[in-house]
Design goal:
The complex is a heterodimer. Chain A contains eight helices and three strands. In chain A, a hairpin with a 4-residue loop joins β2 and β3. Chain A is globular. Chain A is mainly alpha-helical. In chain B, strands 1-3-2 form a three-stranded antiparallel β-sheet. In chain B, a hairpin with a 2-residue loop joins β2 and β3. The N terminus of chain B is likely disordered. Classes of the chains: A mainly alpha, B alpha+beta. The interface between A and B is large, with 42 and 46 residues. β1 of chain A pairs antiparallel with β1 of chain B.
Chain lengths: ~220, ~120
């Protein structure tokens, strides 16, 4: 019996459900983008002056976004070829939930600007969002629990005032990019643990469908 | 032996005999469980998930398809042909019935062991 089948069917179902999310390398280009975007802010916070013109910064941002999007598509294709494809039914409530979650950020920023909250509400939202990705019953994505806890703890220490928002924006991009990078690599590691190291099937070696009834005819092992 | 003594003890074994073997086989149960968690998945993914050889996986899929539990669909693109598999309504019903039967069996076996 293969190693994967020794795992419970519930675990295999959860891996299938999370398959897209476990393709962690797909978020690496965007993480690097955030990381680089926040670098001037991080250097500024350390007292290192960084002078970048607005036009140059804008053009570099657009170019970097295009490169990140292209890289994401290439990596997605790599996953398709090496780990296969899983299609999920479009779930309206999931999309609405995500939209609702994103819509809470302006509210949190407003509260940060005018309400003088006891904790940083933006980080609280981020922390809760990260915890939402944790799947404790299947023992998957434990790193999201750690990351969520870390961000929630940080919400008590990162200044929660209107004055802090401008200087913190770029710095949080830097930190967020770094966090995304780590989470993406850990997601990929979990995928490799569940499905094995990447290998690629040759097209001829795949199962083919034949006959009028469309029955699957398996090829013998090479 | 009085019938009233033997009947409760025999019950779990009667349930075992009633299990759908097409679904109960570990490889096929893994395939059905995976397909129940998505709309459809391709052959490569199922092979990676189960760790089965190509021939074994195709053989199990053929049996499931013959029973009407999965439906296959062939797509071409990027210079190769991909085979997608999806759980049918009958497959979903068979899987749910199997889980329910296992739960009953579990409860009866515990009661039987504790008796």
């Amino acid at each position: 019996m293969s190693a994967s089948i020794r795992r419970s069917p519930a675990h295999l179902a959860e891996v299938t459900r999370l398959f897209r999310g476990l393709q962690g390398l797909r978020i690496v280009p965007m993480a690097v983008f955030f990381f680089a975007w926040g670098l001037p802010g991080a250097l500024g916070a350390l007292g290192v002056p960084v002078q970048i013109g607005d036009v140059a910064f804008g053009l570099a941002t657009l170019a970097a976004l295009a490169v990140a999007a292209f890289a994401e598509r290439r990596i997605a294709r790599w996953y398709d070829e090496h780990y296969g494809i899983v299609e999920q039914a479009s779930r309206l409530h999931g999309v609405l939930g995500a939209v609702g979650y994103v819509a809470l950020f302006p509210v949190a920023l407003l509260w940060l600007g005018f309400g003088n909250p006891p904790v940083n509400p933006v980080l609280v939202l981020l922390g809760v969002g990260l915890l939402f990705h944790w799947r404790p019953r299947a023992g998957l994505r434990m790193h999201y629990a750690a990351a969520g806890g870390l961000v929630l703890a940080a919400s008590f220490y990162v200044p929660a005032s209107a004055d802090a928002t401008a200087s913190l924006t770029l710095l949080s991009m830097f930190g967020g990019g770094g966090l995304l990078l780590v989470l993406g690599v850990l997601d990929h590691r979990e995928l490799v643990r569940a499905l094995g190291p990447p290998t690629m099937d040759t097209p001829a070696a795949e199962a083919r469908v034949s006959g009028a009834e469309g029955s699957i005819v398996g090829e013998q092992d090479a | 032996m009085p019938e009233s003594v033997g009947a409760p003890e025999a019950a779990p074994f009667a349930e075992i005999a009633a299990l759908d073997r097409l679904v109960h086989e570990p490889a096929r149960l893994a395939i059905l469980a995976a397909l129940s968690a998505c709309q459809r998945a391709d052959f490569v993914y199922l092979r990676r998930l189960t760790g089965l050889s190509k021939g074994n996986l195709a053989s199990h899929l053929s049996k499931l398809e013959a029973a009407g539990y999965v439906a296959s669909e062939k797509r071409t693109g990027r210079g190769r042909t991909l085979t997608f598999l999806a759980l049918s309504g009958a497959g979903e019903a068979a899987l749910q019935a199997h889980w329910a039967r296992l739960a009953v069996l579990h409860d009866r076996a515990r009661a039987w062991a504790g008796a």
